[in-house]
Amino acid sequence: MTDDVDTQVSDRLVGRVLDGRYRVGPRVAKGGMATVYQALDMRLDRTVAVKVMHDGLGDDAQFTRRFVAEARAAARLSNPNVVAVFDQGDDGGTLFLAMEYVPGRTLRDVIREEAPLSPARALDLLAPVLSALSAAHDAGIVHRDIKPENVLISTKGEVKVADFGLARAVSASGNTATQGLLMGTVSYLAPELVTDGSADARSDVYSAGILLYEMLTGNKPHSGDTPIQVAYAHVHADVPAPSLEQPAIPPYVDALVQRATARDRDLRPTDARVFSRQVHRVRSALDEGLPDDPELTGDLTVPIQQIRQDSGYDDGYTRGVPTEQGPLRHDTIVVPVEQGRPTGAPATGTHPPKQTAPPVRRRSRGPIALIIVLAAAIAIGTAAWYYGIHRYTTTPNLVNMTAAVASADAEKVGLHTNLANQDYSEDVPVGEVIRTDPAAGDRIRKNGDIGLTVSKGPERYRVPQLVGLQLDAAQQALSPIKLVTGQINEQYNETVPQGRVIAISPKFNTVVKPGTAVNFAVSKGKRPIGVPDFTGKSYRDANKALKKLGFVVSRSQQYDDKVAEGDVISQTPNNGNLFAKDKVSLVVSLGPPLVAVPDVKRKTTADAQKTLGDAGFQVRVQKASFNLGLNIVAAQSPGAGQKVKPGTTIVITVL
User: Fold this and answer.
1) What is the mean pLDDT of residues 408-434?
2) pLDDT tens digits along 199-229
3) Can you give the pLDDT at residue 177?
């Protein structure tokens, strides 16, 4: 049944384009709340990993809000050991993250194939995990879900941590995805997450300590038939020393694991950066091949909380003395039995009568005791000097030096350097040291290693080409390069479609700082123009006014006995809104229809005048040059049958 479901999910998403940008490819992995696919970012032509949340999570509005907030927080993290978050989106209810694609395997694969790992190998894998968590803790972000599946190891050996903030986003949801998360990660949950759901940087430290234990032994520290049993064990049982399973592990490695996984969060390192320093000290001790380092072990050992004799605690013990109910506890104060009491005599109550005995001369032991005390003091002092002073020196100040110069200066005092990290800096030039681990003036073992964080110079980004993109696509393109949306000015534009970017400020290819606001001019589309009605008005005035508004005027003509010649008979359209270069059609009057002129030749003058007058014409009579006085029409102009306007004057010539 599970295989069928997986196939359906794969078939449904593979080949689909999310948010018009990410073409989903083959499935990479599937977890309790999401499935990861390899995908192509078609806009930037690069391979990314797309993490698609399982169906149902997007239906929870609270989860969606938290998901967006946590994704944005994770996107702000800049560390080579953090899987970069490029984008987040919601495609029709399908919530997804677009992230850096890391080809390779997970830490789970390494543990499955290689565990138990040597302490050196385990610490080398843990160090970059702590580097990622340090960056998150510095930014106020708690991961909450550190586990081998979220630690990716690339084909080049780079270690990267994924899924920052997603556990917190899922914990906001009331659906079963939260339960699935608990089921999947309970082996790494800090006790406080189980008891009250609270989490801080020390919770991540606990999970990282469990990771270290699992790498060292190949097993999880707590097991049970159900997740509840495992969670109960985290709350009520200490993580055992790894050396119980792998006896070759040095005591200071045991102490490191148990300090990080202390059930009382106040006893753990305060954050990943402090834990990282402790890991560095332990790694240096391993490099020296020390089977034990009492001073380092003592520094890392979890303080024992002693039980007061009057605490009333009853666990098979009475005032610190073991009873028949249980063995002596390591955290119990043992009260010596009263000396001088005969065997079998009661500890309290009436003592037996004193018996007088002759005094026994004892040889004075004062000088011998003094010698023993002095010898012990010398031995303790020598050991303290050796372990606390002789083997250590002070970290020199290497800040603002180039890596080569810093390495040379460190070598002069018997120390070594390694490039632990690179980071941006506004103040320290490219290639120079920003900070060291340990810091200048801190104690470091002689011949130890100093981790250098070297400057990459000021963090700068080039403004991408955003003109012509839809506004939401342009805004999403800012996120991977840490730029933000500034002012959005909407304006009409006759050539750029509505919703697309007309111009940006700063301009394309400008080099800017992270956090720079990019201002957008966005098209509202063409400006609408109200159409005035020129019906019954002069065509000349209508044509001039419409062209001035930006319209194209189309003219046709027809006769109309009601509309004067040259005026507009009708207009299409004659109201509403149009846009520039749209057409307005006008029908212009030619005046009344033409009328045929009657034939009045050979009629008397009086009859001709009457006939033409009845037809609506004016009549003008002129005598022929050879007039005979007959009053007969000999000619007419316009001639008979011609069509002319009503009211036209017809000239008749009479004999």
Assistant:
1) 89
2) 889 999 999 999 999 999 999 999 888 888 8
3) 36
Asked whether the whole model's pTM tops 0.70, one would answer no
Domain boundary among 482, 503, 523: 523
Q: What is the 3-state secondary structure (H, E, C) of 289-335?
A: CCCCCHHHHHHHCCCCCCECCCCCCCCCEECCEECCCCCCCCCECCC
Q: Is residue 508 a part of any domain in this protein?
A: yes
Considering the domain boundaries, does residue 252 fall inside one? no
Which residue type is seen at 638?
P
- Does residue 137 form part of some domain? yes
Domain ranges, residue 487: 461-523
What distance in Å separates the CA atoms of residue 233 and residue 223, rounded to the nearest whole number?
A: 8
CATH number for the domain harbouring residue 603? 3.30.10.20
Task: Examine the domain organization and report whether 557 and 612 are in the same domain.
Answer: no
Cα dihedral value 344, 350, 355, 360, nearest 10:
70
Q: Is 145 a catalytic residue?
A: yes
The string of pLDDT tens digits covering residues 551-603 is 999 999 999 988 999 999 999 999 999 999 999 999 999 988 888 999 999 89
Cβ contacts of residue 419 below 8 Å, gap of 6+? Answer: 403, 451, 452, 454
- Residue 481 maps to a domain: yes
Enter the tokens of residue 476. 């999403």
Q: Which of 589, 607, 632 is the last residue of a domain?
A: 589
**What's phi and psi for 213, nearest 5 deg?**
-60, -45
Q: Which candidate in 145, 271, 293, 449 is catalytic?
A: 145
515 and 637 both lie in a single domain: no
Number of Cβ within 10 Å of residue 563's Cβ equals 20
